[in-house]
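In the previous chapter we treated chains in isolation. Here, by contrast, the input contains three separate entities that must be folded as one system, with a combined length of 890 residues.
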Amino acid sequence: MNTTYLPSDFLPIIVQFVLAAAFIVVTMIVTHRIGPIRKSKKKDDPFECGIEVVGDARTPISVKYFLVAILFVLFDVEVIFMYPWAVNFKKLGMLGFVEMVLFMTLLLAGFYYIIRKGVLKWEE
Amino acid sequence: MYATLIIFLLMVPGFVVVGVYLERKISAFIQDRMGPMEVGKWGLLQLIADLLKLLQKEDIVPKAADKWLFLGAPFVIFAAVFAAYAVLPLAPGLSGSGAAVGVFYLLTIVSVDVIGILMAGWGSNNKYALFGAMRSGAQIISYEIPLGLSILCVVMLNQTLDLQAISFQQGIYSPEPVYLFGLKDLGVDVTQMGGFLSWNIVRNPFLFLAYIVFFIASLAECNRAPFDLPEGESELVGGFHTEYSGMRYALLMLSEYGMMLLVSLLGAILFLGSWNTPLPNIGPLRLADWTSGEPGTWLGYLTGAFWLLTKALLAVLVQMWVRWTLPRLRVDQLMFLGWKVLTPVGLVLFFVSGVWRLLGV
Amino acid sequence: MSNTQQYDYQPGHLTASEPNKYGPGTLKKEEMVLNMGPQHPSTHGVLRLEIVTDGEVVVDVVPHLGYLHRCFEKHAESLPFNQIIPYVDRMDYLAAMNSEHAYVMGVERMLGIENDIPKRVEYIRVLVAELNRLASHFIAIGTYAMDIGAYTPFLWLVRDREHILGMLEWTCGSRMLYNYIWIGGLFYDLPVGFEERCAEFVRYLKPKLVELHQLVVENKIFIQRTAHVGVLPMATAINYGCAGPVLRGSGLRYDLRRVDAYSVYPELDFDIPVGKGEAGTRGDCWDRNWVRVAECWESVKIIEQCLKQLNGKYVRTRDFDPQAMVPKKIRPKAMDFYARAESAKGELGFFFRTDGRSDVPVRCKARACSFHNLSVIAELSRGGLLADLVAVIGSLDLVMGEVDR
């Protein structure tokens, strides 16, 4: 088992990334080589069930998605904060746990407020 | 170390082949059909034939699309999913990267997947694709919170982010004594018994609930039914991959199956004892010793990989079973489940496992 | 020149589709026009829906029709009555027997021979019509489950429907478009052994229907997706002329098999299930689907009774000729006549105008139930989510062949 962690431990990750990318590049080259390339107006249109597209697809998106994203950022940062704490959980003991519960309670109060505000109501 | 990488690189496409074949045959079994039967014996070569066909197809880029986003999206999704395998331990002493922050890295990688999907949706400039991508983004980030919380419970128990270290703690090769249910006061030392008794879900019984949360959240992370809204065929045609064709579509498919195996492996490692055998030593019946080899030996590698892959495949089977049984949820129901059910449950579990851990110290 | 050229062909004709009702000028700022169909997996054929959405919420739905228009009514104006039957088959291709039954009864009544039809023929007609109603409902329920996202019920139902199609193929040589019920009789008598095979099928089907109930009616997610969705109040349903399971789902006990009491239905014992709002609101998608599932049970009941009669009182005899009453010349008196019957989708009616001088109707207008059921779609889906729209379309059980005719 590893007891000392070195930067070189991250090398395999990079190798894997490179290999995955190489796999894609190779298949793409092959598929471009053996596949046909034929252009036509109808084919290059975006798919809209066989009807000509009206307007741009990139219209403003419902604000609910944005609210979910903001909520996610809030919670994700919190969860990420909790990881280093969780690793040292035993060392920090009871006091650390109480502190974290306090922190969570504050956060949950905000979460409760958000839910009561109806941020997660999709129906209207 | 690099041996594992090569094994993984072979295993992942290998699994995808097995996974797609299994999915077809299992769905056929559930639906009272035969499944593929024509290509090769029992249709074994069907996926190869499919991939060869897709390889010959034209790579169409719609005119309205944002070319670089559109072309880059499969890259991002595929590379993210497959690079995630680098930190998974396959067997005792055998893992690609010994990075200390394996769990963290995996959570990050799952998020990169979202970027790829949003790139695909926005880049396609297609209404269905954009809808699908938005849903997918909202879904994946929503379910990442319960996912993170359930994993947090494990980290609190194991006190490390290194997946290999977590694996070692769950069996007879544990560096520190393992007590039944993680409670020292019970005074039952199960380090020598091993088997399922030292798995995380037994060391802290609440982790079983956490595993259920993890499993549901991971279904959503893979965009699998009943959370397959992003590609919800009946409304959004193909969701974010509506416009993709040929090999690029195949890459997206491969990443979906890669993702399925990834979360199943992760669940097995974190909760179900990783590469440890499920059979405990009972008195003279040294079942655990017989079914797992010493770390670092070939027998150890083989038995470890066998147990881990078996557990992961079982989880994949359940994923498939769920997919072919349940209907699809609606967007608001999905959000309801994610934010108002799983997240609070995750928080409660986090709290309870903290108390449990403090009891056990 | 003018008689060689039928119409001015312009290259645009083949590619143009009906223009959108909503365009950049008529849309509000955040609204978007989304097209669903004709090439879409859940519009059940070639229905095209122009959807105005605001985010995920549906603001308006405009159906565009005509992709499966095959000029049934115009064809009918140049064909003798007995040759129209195959065209009737092709209207609602999922329940061709029911359409034939309605059409044939109409012509028989015009000729005044409806009381001369042998009882055995009537029972066989009802038997095959109910078998076909089962097959049609199976497709409706199965595709509905597929729209909701469950793929398995569809294939299970297709498996069971396969038995029905096999039996009907054995009866008349064709799997979907039968041309079996003739004016005044039948094409053939039932093949020898049909009754036994049908009885065996009923025994086989009953446990499968229980299974179906568990899978698509009682499933938690299925109820979540369909209850309280697309609520159709009874008054609206009546105003729009809805019929069949769509109307009965809204709670009105209106079934032409009972209301008109045609054929041998008065002699048969069966219930008419109506939506009660058990899972949600009365008249929601769940109710409509539930009515179909319940009607499958009723059809099974009718089939059992028909088989009993066909094995008992009206058993096959050596000298029985199903074509005995088929008129040599089908020439009704000059009249306007409307005939209707309960098809699998609702009230299927035919309006005939005859001049009494020819074998060909002057006008033959079909009142297609799917067309009327389709008309409520905007009413049902406004203000709902995009995913609900799919649930609504599926619950109406549209067959585009019948809508466009």
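Chain A has four helices and no strands. Chain A has a mean pLDDT of 77. Compare these points with the single-chain example from earlier in the chapter.
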